[in-house]
Each structure stands twice: as structure tokens, then as C-alpha cells.
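user:
I keep going back and forth on a fold encoding question. Separate attempts, laid side by side, tell us more than any discussion would. Would you put together a sequence-and-structure record for a protein of your own picking? Write it directly below this note and I will take it from there.

assistant:
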Amino acid sequence: MIQALLVDDEAPARESLEKKLELFCPEVSIIGQASSLKEAITVLEDDWPQLIFLDIDLGQTSGFDLLEQLPSLADDRALPEVIFITAHDEYAIRAIKFSALDYVLKPIDTEELVKAIRKFQEKHDQKPLGNSYDVLLENLRSVNSGPRRIMIPAGDGLQILKVSDIVRCESSSNYTYFYLNDGTRLMASKTLKEFDMLLSPYSFERIHKSHLVNLNYAVRYVTSDGGYLVLEDGSNIPVANRKKERLMRLFKGK
């Protein structure tokens, strides 16, 4: 059984989530509920869950405040996984995705809830190569400059990368290769489309169906030979016809 704690300041929301879990996720056992940060800490002092369903908005405090305190509460115990419960907070959702954590939107859709539990079960035995909580909290603090780090599923765990170190990403079927500024190449078990959605607001451009590039590493745009972009690492990346006009505009704007 998955030992879970529900943290939400709205009693009807907790009751609704509890009923959905009982009906559709019988593998989840609820060990406690809390309506505030203080109540959640009290529960955690007595019982330690494997999973926390955590509302981001807890009235006077935030679910992220609890996240900051979990390491000190854990002692030598493994940190619980967190599934955030949230309304449409675009920046918070993006930060959550960068940290490889999961979320479900309010009002909670049963199918999305079941999917989140399955994802938890799939990665529960993985050994992360870094701390998702640290990445999330750091990215939330850098709201003005954009996320600083991203966690990608690589090998049998998760790898933390500095966003500024990523030169380009290249599609390989359902996988994505990351090329870093120190010459390292990593393979992530997600599609390029997923990383495009995450990185495109931060100087990354999908210039070809198979290539996502960090324009901060662009040296020049060559219009001959079909058109390609030269990057600092010496790679020449083809530019799709539909992207040529946009790329020209971006370079003129530099």
C-alpha cells in the first residue's frame, strides 16, 4: 500500500480527493489529513508518508513552505514524493515540470489522478541523481530570470542540468539527446516535444522537427545549402523552411 497524506485548506476538496482515491486508487492508504502547514507538520511528526497530495494554496501559507521544511523533518527517512494539487498557476506548473515532480489540476479529474498514481509507482524505485525539491524551490525563487535548473529522466534516475549549460536537444524517436557546453551528451527518456514546451520561453527555439537549440549559443545563420544554424560547439543545425523567416527576425532583433 502507498501511505499518503492529504494537505488542502478546503475540507470539501479533501473529502472529494479521499473518495476518488478510495474508489479508483485502492492501492493508496490515507494516513492523515491536514488543512494547514501547522497541521501537516503535526501529522508528519507522528506518521511518515510515502506520498503527499499537496495543495499549493494553503490560505496564509503555501504548499511550497511545507516542501522547504520536509528535509529537516525527515531525519534519516526517505523524502516523500509530492503530487501537487493546484489551480491554473502557469509559473508554478512550469516550475513543477522542470523539477520532474507531478501535479493535478483542480477540480481533480479522475483519469488524471489515476495517471499521477501510476507515474508515482513507476518512478518510486528510481534513485534520483539529485533533489527535485531543491530544483523546484530554486526555480520558484528565480521567477524574474526563469528556471535555472531542470531535471531530466536519464539512465535509471534523474539528472540535474543547468538550463544555461544546454546547447541543443535532438530528437531520437521517443528519446531526446541533450548536448551540453562541456561536450557531454545525455539521453533523456522523453520526447523533444515535451522539452520544447518547457524550454521554448527561455531562448530555446525549435528550428527543425528534430532540433531544439539554445539561441544563446548561436554563432551565425547561413542561408545557403538549404539554411543552417552554426552553434558555438561547431555543430551545424538544419533550419526548416517554415522557421527561416522567424529565425531571420530573431537574429535581426539581436
Remarks:
- The chain has two domains: 2-134, 148-252.
- The chain has eight helices and 17 strands.
